[in-house]
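I'm stuck. Protein, please.
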Amino acid sequence: MTATAFFPRRYAGVSRPLLLAVVVVTVLANAVALAADLSRGTFLNVYNATQYYLTWQDGFFRRGFPGTVLHLLMGRDPTLAELSVVTAVATVLGLAAMLALVVVAARLPAFSGAEGVALTVLVASPLTFSMVLHNRSRLDPVVVLLVVALALLPERVLSSRWLSAVLAAGLAAAAVGSLEFAVGFVVALLIARALRQPPGAGRVVRFALELAPGLAIALASLLLRPSPATIDRVAARFGQVGVTAPRENSVSVLTNTVPQALDLNRDHLLLTRVLWFAVFAACFAVTVVLLRRLGRTGAFDTRTALACLVCCAATAGLVSIVGFDYGRWFSLALVGLMGSLVVGQRRPTTSVRVLGRSGRAYPRPTELLLLVVLLVSLVGQQFPVYPAWG
């Protein structure tokens, strides 16, 4: 794949050097931030990484899927050094999945003639690669990997829609088992899969088959709370392998009820929470509006695209009421939406080498919006994900 394949000389007044410069600066900005964390010894956030010690062997836990798989593979709990390796591998896989998703999304027929611009917007967005890096100690890279795998799953596997449905059910359940709030983004993907199939009873049954396991896990995750004794057992386990975590960590907060979660939000000023929500909601909204403008007329006004957009945006908004990690929710919403568009429009068969040979002209407001988004995104790469004051 060459630069020329995605980037013609000019896109309606936006030059190829500018687009390439945005991509280069975005990569460098994230590399510098990562290097700074490594030099400070803060690559691994133990508070968040303790969720890798959750296993369903201690009873049902929300977010227990990755820890269960890790424990089965290792036969024991990982040490702190091994946990650093695990999170690094998960982050690399999450970044690779994100790269695959944005490249495939930029190649959708809707962006014909504008592939390079769409790719630049998705790479430069604070809600894509930088969010995976920022949340590397959480389970988010695993969720991104599973959601992208679901988005790229063929309609037929070994010529069978039913086998594809079984695999989709497994991927959806694994994603929700890693983060229960991902259920809304998974539902968007499953809706897109269902609407791609011929109408009939088979489509309804396959949709129910794909949705049921993940929905059951989501409901159990939201309704069941681990007992304090179970949380103490998990804390004792990661203490035995030399992991020193704060008394309040990402495992202990799983016992919180909705009122307790809302009380935790009040530790930060209301103005701070409103500002953070507005920043990340605006990043999501502007990215969607810009992609819609870059897309061909009507490409994003289909019932599938609108249903998936509402599902993803509503999920991010609702989760933001109880969780102030707003960047995470809108990042996963964008991943879910891009995945839904890929499922709904399917991957093009045109070779990458012939893409983007003729740029497409855009109205003046779209050009200005594009430039603003790209410039703001470069700053937004380093915008704090977690409310650091108030």
